[in-house]
Amino acid sequence: MKAPNGRVVAVTPAAYETAGEAERGFDGLRAVADGLTARITHVRDGIGWIWVIPGSRTLPEVRSSRAYERYATCQNAFRRFVVLLAKQPALELPELSERGPSLRTSDVR
Hints:
By secondary structure, this protein is of the alpha+beta class. It has 2 helices and 4 strands; from the N terminus they run βαβββα.
């Protein structure tokens, strides 16, 4: 997810088979933005803190795109992410066919 200034603020480690699956995952996250809770943790290899929204699988649902030097800065970055996420408009996606919808590159965020 990118901020209005173009900076990447969050990434997902999950791999989606279709653009439609990725969009539905984003839409689901956007729908529960107000109730999201992050785990803030120190990075393993290096200096800094990252925020992580735990997922149902072994991978995080979403995480910060970079490490922050200070714990408080990381907390503030997560709060800004939630506000930005909540402001995203809901998508109207086509229903899934057996192979998934065919979306043009311009249809993907």
